[in-house]
Amino acid sequence: MRICVIGAGYVGLATAVMFGKLGHRVACADIDDRRVRDVSSGRAPFYEPPLENELAKLVKSGMISASKDVVAPSAESKFIFVCVQTPSLSTGKIDISALKAASRDVARAIARTNDYKIVVVKSTVVPSTTDTIVRQILEAGSGKTAGKDFGLCMNPEFLQEGSALKDSMEPSRIVVGSSDKRAGDALMRLYAPIKADRFRTDLRTAEMIKYASNAFLAAKITYANEVANICRRLGIDSEDVLTAAGKDPRIGPLFLTPGLGFGGSCLPKDVRALRYKARRLDYPAYLLTAILKVNESQPNEAVDILKDVFGDLKGLKVAVLGLSFKGGVDDVRDTRAVPLVAGLLANGVDVIAFDPMAMSHFIELMPTIRFASSADEALSGVDACVVQADWPEFRKIGRKQFSKMRNPVVIDGRRCLDPGKVETAGARYYGVGYGPASSE
Ligand SMILES: NC(=O)c1ccc[n+]([C@@H]2O[C@H](COP(=O)([O-])OP(=O)(O)OC[C@H]3O[C@@H](n4cnc5c(N)ncnc54)[C@H](O)[C@@H]3O)[C@@H](O)[C@H]2O)c1
Asked: Of 7, 52, 237, 389, which sits 20 to 30 A from 34 (CA to CA)?
């Protein structure tokens, strides 16, 4: 089967590699020169090692190719997966300009041939987008009719960055929304080798499933953060509380770890988009507003802990370790490191920052702060460090590095360190949801 994947990002490349591994020929189309060059030479344009390994093999064997041209590879393919970005506008509404541009190219491809093609929207879009905007662009640009001359599906993606390929090959579920049975049946057959529960729906339901899922994850993280914030003020270790709470099968342990808030390219923008859509429908969406509010203030927890320890922060030297939105990835979209660093600077702190992979991207967001070339260098001579992203290597920091700090104080912003080990290695440990005993 020939498949075209439009957008060589996390979702597009994971989709391409998954179908390549299943034996299909995949053409990746992207408007970004650098991404096309990277993919053509078997490199992933982001840090995702297992995906990159497989991509390199499939490019070498000719199963995956890449081009800047979107129309030609779409015209040669039976399935066209649209995996372009849908970022937030300042109102919270999603920016679908990339989706519209890609749809116009797909319409040209559909106009060129008489084959029945199946267009699959994989980008996260609010309910009705596929059935109204995408359908309208495809029909107007091709002169053909969805459901008759070509098929239209909505197939939301649930992968997590850091395990993109594994999540695509072993998904928690496959959701296929379609405008017509023929298209939905064909997409189900394409997914036949992948083991997962399947859900057949209409286009709008498929779109809503993605938002319901991400809004829940955001709510769960936020709940853990709020519990942790209360625990810290009570002098209770939130890990003891949340671990025991998570044993209830109705609650569950995943995404119940507190931190400095959720970031990344999906959860923040998806919650904002769902709230925007709800408000357009005259529904106030109080819970979604509360999630965003807690998340916005959550990086302040690290600043508050520093104030509890040091009092006035003016002139304090603090290392921020981890700048990506989570450990193991180099994605800095909506990373909580930005409000964290901004909060520290606003309090007169002298910040030095380090990340194992994301530094070159973070410099574009905050070019004027100081960067270190290693965690050791960042810690040298500082009064405290804040772990903002849970990179595994930060767990190895010990006596050698702590002894170089002016004041060995560690603020664990992701609860990824072992307090006992940190203290044994000679530093004072503080963390989100972990504080000194209170008299309350
Ligand atoms: N990143 C994730 O973890 C994840 C998970 C699930 C769903 N999603 C959703 O999937 C979509 C894609 O996310 P992503 O993180 O892979 O995005 P991304 O920003 O990493 O990649 C998008 C790619 O599309 C390309 N592009 C933009 N306009 C184009 C056009 N007209 N023609 C061809 N290529 C074009 C861009 O150059 C870019 O390379 C978004 O809607 C996102 O919300 C993302």
From this structure: 389
Angstrom distance (rounded) from CA 416 to CA 390: 6
Tens digit of pLDDT for each residue in 320-363? 999 999 999 999 999 999 999 999 999 999 999 999 999 999 99
CA of 178 to the centre of ligand 1 (A): 21
Does residue 203 contact residue 228 with C-beta atoms inside 8 Å? no
Ligand 1 midpoint to CA 17 (Å): 15
Substitution site in 10, 46, 100 for ligand 1 pocket (most atoms within 8 Å of beta carbon): 10
Place of tokens 């003891």: 240
- Which residue's entry shows tokens 């081009």? 67
pLDDT tens digit string along 116-155? 999 999 999 999 999 999 999 999 999 999 999 999 999 9
Atom of ligand 1 nearest to the CA of 7: 24
pLDDT band at 435 (very low <50, low <70, confident <90, very high): confident
Residue 225 CA to ligand 1 center (angstroms) comes to 29
Mean predicted lDDT score pLDDT of the chain: 97
Task: Quickly state the pLDDT bin for 424 (edges 50, 70, 90).
Answer: very high
Domains of the chain, with CATH numbers? 2-200 (3.40.50.720), 217-431 (3.40.50.720)
Closest-CA residue, ligand 1 atom 18, reads 9
**Residues contacting ligand 1 via CB (< 6 Å):** 6-12, 29-32, 35, 70, 83-86, 98, 101-102, 123-124, 157, 159, 161, 265-266
Which tens digits make up the pLDDT trace of 215-226? 999 999 999 999
102 CA closest ligand 1 atom index = 31
Cα 264 to Cα 75: distance, rounded to the nearest angstrom: 33
Residue 440 has pLDDT above 70, yes or no: no
Neighbours of 87 (CB within 10 A): 14
Helix runs in 4-96, H state only: 10-21, 33-40, 49-60, 71-75
Ligand 1 midpoint to CA 408 (Å): 41
Nearest CA to ligand 1 atom 24: 7
Report the atom number in ligand 1 closest to the C-alpha of 29: 33
pLDDT tens per residue across span 150-177:
999 999 999 999 999 999 999 999 999 9
